[in-house]
Amino acid sequence: MNALVLPVVLPLLTAFLLQPAGRLSAALARWAGPAVLLVCAGLLVQIALLTGGEPVTAAIGGFAPPVGIVFYADALALLMAIAVPVSALLLWPRAEAGEAGVRQSALMLLLVGSGTGMALSGDLFNLYVFYELLTVASFGLASATGTGRAYVATVRYVLVSGFGSLIALAGIALLYAQTGSLNLAQLADLAPERLANPLGLAAFACLLIGFGVKAELFPVNNWVPDLYACAGKPISALLAGVVSKLAVLVLLRLTVLVFDSPEAREMLMVLGLAGLVTGELAAWRARDLPRLLAYSSIGQLGLLFVALSLPGPAGLAAALAVALHHLLVKPALFMLAERWHGSLDKLAGAGRASPLAAGLFTLFALSLVGVPPLPGFWAKLLVLLELARGAGPFDLTALALVLAVTVVEAHYLFRLVGILYSPGEFRDRHSPRALAVAGLGGAVLVAAMLTLPAVSDALAGLASQAADTAAYRTLTLGGGL
Amino acid sequence: MTPLDTLYLASAATLAAMLVLGDWRRAGVLATLMYGVQLALLFTMQRTGSTSFDLSALGFELSWRFDALSWFFAVVTLGTAFFASWYGAGEWLRAYTGRRRLFQSALAANVFAMLLLLGSGDLLTLFVGWEATSWAGFLLMALAGGLARDAALRYLVYAMAGAMALLGALVVLFQAGGSFSYEAARATLAAMAPGPLWALIILFGLGFGAKLALLPLHLWQAAAYSETPAPGSVFLGGVVGRMGLFALALVLVGLIGIPHLQALAVPFTFLTAQDVVAWVAALTVVLPTYTALKQNDARYLLAWHGIGQGGYMLLGLIVGSALGSAGGLLHVINYAATQATLLMVVFGVRHRVGHTDLNRLGGLVARMPLSFLALLLGIISLAGLPPMSGFVSKWMVYSSLIQDGRPFLFLAAIVGTLGTILSVYKLIHNLFLGQLRAEHEQLNEAPLSMLIPMLATATLAFVTGVAPGLVLGWVADAQAAIGLPVIDYTLGGIASPRASLDMLWVVGVMFAGFGVGALLFYGAGGKTHRVHQLDNYAGGHFLDAGMRYHYSDNFYAGLMHLIGGWYRGSFHWLEGAIGSGLSLVAQGAGGWYRAINPAFYLLAASVALIAWVAL
């Protein structure tokens, strides 16, 4: 399955060739990026169709794992890998003339290549490299608006990211010292004997902090509000949407394959709850829409980590439901924030000026709060049921907190809906593209609601496949060591 | 297709029609007819039950069906919707300045959502219906904007808190019993240890109590119901809050059961779970009723009474005897007719005058005599006096409290009724009695399209008062559906050896008394002397027609001198304190994300994590 490598390599290659190509032809520089993304998305879809969701692997350069580097593509990895170029296409930055435009396109391609790599990698060091690459690309994209505030926010982001990378590297070093391998499948084999100790847990903590930066995990997420508020909205949408989910995917693989211990789960749950509560409460007091969405994103990802801490395929299914819901809703909301910036109170009248946007916002808000029969409700219900299944004092506290925070969430979202629909002077309309992206999000959301049985079956399939560690190991290592 | 399918189809069709045609001049008439069709369909359905469709999602079965309890509440729902819509179909709609399509659709959505809730065949469906009802209610409350929007947002917080408590209870119950079905829940609850059972009762109580506006979850209701456009307010006030009672009847009585509640003791006290619920209901009767007494807006006065009357319903239901629970359930239908009448009159006054400020009205009986008649019948019923229907249901609740040996609860109910009588007198006096204000001298009676429904509901309240047997059959079936002892009724009332009531006799004697009085009066010559409305006295002094004098402000000054100090605003204080506390925590959370130097925190966090690992 060497075609798996192409969606990673093609964008990276194009990114490096784009600068010289820009000298030759402006049109080439402008259209090469989207064209390559289309090809990548097409390739990935074709792979998905060919394999029919069965996991496949690709050993890079023909070197067999665990010595060589391996790509592992099960249904979940492919889904995330497809989400990367598709999101990037939908959220492609507005074409700027000249150097700046070319630079931005190159950075986007870099982000897509490394993001796809992160989704497919079956090797921790490789993951780390792609993660770093993606981080660097996102620095450039985040500061592309060129305002002072964006620079300040980006510097802060750089600071936290650099710190996170350092910690992650320390974690990887610890892992390597303990096991002598960074291949996830082999780590999964070795974990029970070598990593079931405080050192193993410390390695997990380090990796959690490191990859948690992008995943908006609690203590390393305070770059989020400023950056999302100051960066271009498509970039915020991309970071909050697909990029954060890639980091989550890494943590998901780590918890499922390597660190499947109660202590690690406890750590995830505590940090998730802290993110959930602080994020939603901060969103409650937010005074402008981009920040509100950023805080709400932190809260939603907190819920995701709570879900991720739940054991078994059912817990994994809950986590995936929350993740996919957020992947769909948050970018769409950020696109709506494109024109709805400034103080929340000034948005009065926006509902009259653009009824479609206000209607979509209401739909997303309902789904985020978890109003049946919208998909957000089912995602939340799965999490709550799993928390109730655990039934320990810890789980029940988490259950109570998730429920309580939902009330806060409903209040701030519908206070805003109330403002949107009250009479006022706000007249800005959205760009057609922002509306199209948000509308697409809404359409998919409604479609998922209408085909709920099929969607839930697919979700259960994804989860059981992702939870099947034995399959991962045998397939990657070819029947064990 | 089952009869219930047809009903749902008709209700969905009403919603669709209003979404498409809501702006049409005659949309109100169309909606009224369609609610009428739904009501007719309901009457053709068997009271004891009908099934509808099933769905399956994520491995959960969702099913809808009607039993006699659903049917009973559906009658009240559709009846109220029919009259409320009629009320708003004519001149009211022509004068309405808001968005008509939105309003008509919101009303239809409420009806549809409530029918879905009433038809829920398992706990998950119950939650889906509950949320649908809550959000449809939010739409109806918020759509007028301004004050209404603020009130609706406050409602939303209470409703969501309730819904989340309910959801918490449901997931815990699911994990204990492995299913959302009522049968599994009943079995699980029967076998549950006292601790978890208490937790579930509290969660269910919070969940359903928020909609019924039980203490201490009642603060949102008056403003949210009052600020809604007239037909919406009539509908909300008449029936929407009662969904909480329906759900409590279903879960507390139907699934847990009164005997189980009686057996469940509050640790370290002599109280049982039944006593606790009964006292919450009794406090809900007393405190909001006396809050109503202090209102100076007719709409708010009635809305506060709505909260108190919900307490009577729960009080009767939770007593659990045939008589008490029948009284509680009967009060749902009686109160709906009563409150609809009263609100229609008040909004009729508002339609003509432009406001409902009790300090700036008076003497309207001379201009709006038929509205006055409807209001008079309504307040008699609300106060629970014969010959109106409110008397029957309240009498049943009182009798059951005495029979059950609960004198203090009985006393609370009586104190509540006293407050009701005082405040409805204030209502009729400040609206219709006393002097007519100069600016109202050219006023007309409410338009016919508004008069007919208000007189119709007043007539219903009268007829079911004289012959409660007409509706007691529905109540008896509903009792049977949730496993309560069934009331033994006759056309005139109740046939029971310990407490029988025959309203045909009561009303007969009453009207005979009037007849004797009339005979004496006219026999003595029937001397009458008409005086001008402004021709009156105050404190023994004659006031000439040029001196306007209408006593309305600070209406019960003497009483307030006695009990005024008891109004402490504790619930408002509690609400504010929770809000401020949350705000403080939120400020802290926001502060974390605004920290200027994140690196320090990161270092601290890493050290903490490593310490955690090491420990």
UniProtKB/TrEMBL annotation, chain A:
Gene Ontology BP annotations: ATP synthesis coupled electron transport
Keywords per UniProt: Cell membrane, Membrane, Transmembrane, Transmembrane helix
GO function terms (MF aspect): NADH dehydrogenase (ubiquinone) activity
Main localization (coarse): membrane
Pfam families: Proton_antipo_M
Domain NADH:quinone oxidoreductase/Mrp antiporter transmembrane: 121-389
Localization in the cell: Cell membrane; Membrane
Transmembrane stretches, start-end: 36-57, 69-92, 104-122, 129-151, 157-177, 198-215, 235-259, 292-310, 316-336, 356-378, 398-422, 434-455
Membrane topology: Multi-pass membrane protein
GO cellular component, one term: plasma membrane
Origin superkingdom: Bacteria
Similarity annotation: Belongs to the CPA3 antiporters (TC 2.A.63) subunit D family.
Name under which the protein is recorded: NADH-quinone oxidoreductase subunit J
